[in-house]
């Protein structure tokens, strides 16, 4: 797995490379610029208009190095836009070098609206070197105007190190560059992996501007980025049968949402559960019993749950389930809590109760995560998690909620965040928007429930279940294009088979 670190840690590595490894700042800048150009060049055509946005810091200096390599390589249709009043020493020197080239250069602060509107006309690429990772707050208003125009342009955008105004301690609601490609230096930063920021980075490519490997190993990871796309599960033994493959109890279904529990049940079977029992309300019993002959359907009347290996509670459950949820917690059985089960739990927490429980996996989307956070700390005037917080606040909030609830989190957004009770956080990049369809979360909960009935380590279950769900989405997209959750179900078994070692 790749480590995701604080931007300040990479800044420290840059400084230590100069002081300890004796590599001058200009050499690092030259290396960074050359590597970025080599990565980017295959995407260019010689007639392309390239607009370079160069701020006053070292990020702007990097952009000018890239511009120089492009010009020397035959790309003559180049416009350089200078922004920022305060120049770093390296950036000032790069501007002086550019001054000896016959490139079109403009000072953003000295251009009128008419000129500003024409800068990006017919541009094929915008190269963002306005500000780097050191930003702590919003951009100045004048630079925001430049960013807005750049974002409105149909040109593709290359961000140098990180899109301008994305930072560990900058609210994700601030105006920032929206890039198609980000070439980041040294190590990948958490600022790029907030659910709001990640789409603005486009494809992320890692490059090393000659930082010594020993220094790159020093920062502590805030999170880990999973590089696998396929799950890993042990193969079933040749003598496995239904009773040895795990018996999952599902508490779900209501008159409003009858399909959610069925999707979860079928997903559990496809994820190798041997037996599935659905506990539902009397008024939906007939419908539930007729929907899937493989599922045993029952009405819960306080019968013992000790024969079950795991419990899944929440899919299509509806409101008012606090009493039964407390009962489920009291069994100390391994539990996956999803959807309405999470809402129910938040209601209990908001009353100041902290019910004891056994092994617990929660699968909230961002809205449900906010409800849990508010229930835990109603006194806080906090930012909205995953919406207008900073990346550092977001990752810290995930770890705090997991720790306080003594639960493993599987947080569902464009990315999936798996958070262990010990503070380890793994980011899974699905990059598959076709999974964003009604019922997809019920399928995931069924997969996790099946694995929880057979495996013991919660973090392993959460990661492998998530990867199986992602693989099922990939297989469904390949088979059907866009699809519904019924079609997704048909690919879960193949994804599980793919994961078997």
Overview of the molecule:
With 501 residues, the protein is an alpha/beta fold. It folds into two domains: 2-222, Rossmann fold (3-Layer(aba) Sandwich); 247-390 and 430-499, UDP-N-acetylmuramoyl-L-alanine:D-glutamate ligase. It has 16 helices and 19 strands. α6 (141-152) links the parallel β5 and β6. α15 crosses α16.
Structural key phrases:
501 residues; alpha/beta; Rossmann fold; UDP-N-acetylmuramoyl-L-alanine:D-glutamate ligase; 2 domains; seven-stranded parallel β-sheet; 16 helices
**Number of helix segments?**
16
- CATH arch. level architecture of the largest domain: 3-Layer(aba) Sandwich
Total discrete domains: 2
Helix/strand/pairing class, anyone?
A: alpha/beta
CATH secondary-structure class of the largest domain:
Alpha Beta
Amino- and carboxy-terminal Cα gap: 19 Å
CATH superfamily of the largest domain: YjeF N-terminal domain
Kindly report the average pLDDT value. Answer: 95
The strand order across the widest sheet is 8-1-10-19-18-17-16-15-14-11-12-13
Specify the oligomeric state.
single chain
Share in helix: 25-40%
Largest sheet: 12 strands, mixed
**Number of separate strands:** 19
CATH topology name of the largest domain, in short, is Rossmann fold
Output the radius of gyration.
Answer: 26 Å
Low-confidence spans: none
Shape: elongated
Beta-strand content bin: 15-25%
């Amino acid at each position: 797995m790749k480590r995701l670190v604080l931007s300040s840690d990479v800044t420290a590595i840059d400084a230590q490379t100069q002081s300890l490894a004796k590599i001058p700042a200009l050499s690092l800048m030259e290396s960074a610029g050359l590597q970025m150009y080599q990565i980017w060049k295959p995407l260019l055509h010689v007639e392309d208009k390239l607009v370079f946005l160069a701020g006053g810091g070292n990020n702007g200096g990097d952009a000018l190095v890239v511009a120089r390599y492009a010009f020397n390589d035959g790309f003559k249709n180049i416009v350089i836009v200078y922004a920022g009043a305060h120049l770093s020493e390296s950036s000032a020197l790069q501007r002086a070098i550019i001054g000896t080239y016959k490139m079109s250069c403009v000072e953003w602060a000295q251009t009128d609206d008419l000129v500003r509107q024409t800068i990006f006309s017919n541009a094929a690429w915008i190269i963002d070197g306005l500000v780097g990772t050191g930003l702590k707050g919003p951009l100045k208003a004048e630079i925001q105007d430049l960013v807005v125009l750049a974002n409105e342009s149909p040109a593709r955008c290359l961000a140098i190190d990180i899109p301008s105004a994305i930072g560990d301690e900058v609210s994700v609601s601030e105006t920032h560059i929206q890039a198609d490609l980000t070439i980041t230096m040294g190590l990948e930063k958490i600022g790029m992996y907030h659910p709001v920021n990640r789409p603005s980075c486009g494809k992320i490519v890692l490059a090393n501007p000659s930082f010594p490997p020993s220094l790159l190993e020093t920062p502590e990871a805030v999170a880990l980025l999973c590089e696998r796309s396929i799950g890993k599960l042990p193969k079933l033994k040749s003598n496995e049968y239904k009773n040895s493959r795990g018996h999952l109890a599902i508490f779900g279904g209501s008159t409003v949402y009858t399909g959610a529990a069925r999707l979860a049940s079928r997903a559990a079977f496809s994820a190798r559960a041997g037996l599935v029992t659905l506990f539902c309300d009397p008024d939906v019993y007939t419908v539930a019993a007729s929907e899937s002959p493989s599922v045993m359907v029952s009405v819960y009347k306080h019968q013992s749950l000790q024969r079950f290996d795991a419990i899944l509670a929440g899919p299509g459950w509806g409101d008012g389930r606090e009493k039964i949820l407390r009962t489920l917690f009291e069994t100390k059985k391994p539990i996956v809590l999803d959807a309405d089960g999470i809402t129910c739990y938040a209601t209990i927490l908001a009353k100041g109760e902290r019910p004891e429980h056994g092994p617990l996996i929660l699968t909230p989307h961002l809205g449900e995560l906010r409800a849990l956070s508010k229930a835990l700390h109603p006194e806080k005037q906090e930012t909205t998690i995953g919406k207008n917080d900073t990346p550092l606040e977001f990752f810290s909030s995930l770890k705090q909620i997991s720790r306080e609830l003594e639960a493993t989190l599987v947080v569902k957004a464009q990315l999936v965040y798996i958070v262990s009770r010990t503070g380890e956080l793994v980011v899974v990049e699905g990059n598959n928007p076709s999974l964003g369809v009604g019922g997809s979360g019920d399928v995931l909960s069924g997969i996790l429930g099946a694995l929880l009935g057979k495996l013991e380590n919660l973090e392993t279950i959460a990661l492998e279940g998530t990867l199986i769900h992602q693989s099922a989405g990939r297989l469904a997209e390949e088979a059907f294009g866009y699809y519904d959750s019924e079609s997704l179900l048909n690919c879960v078994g193949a994804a599980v088979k793919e994961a078997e070692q």
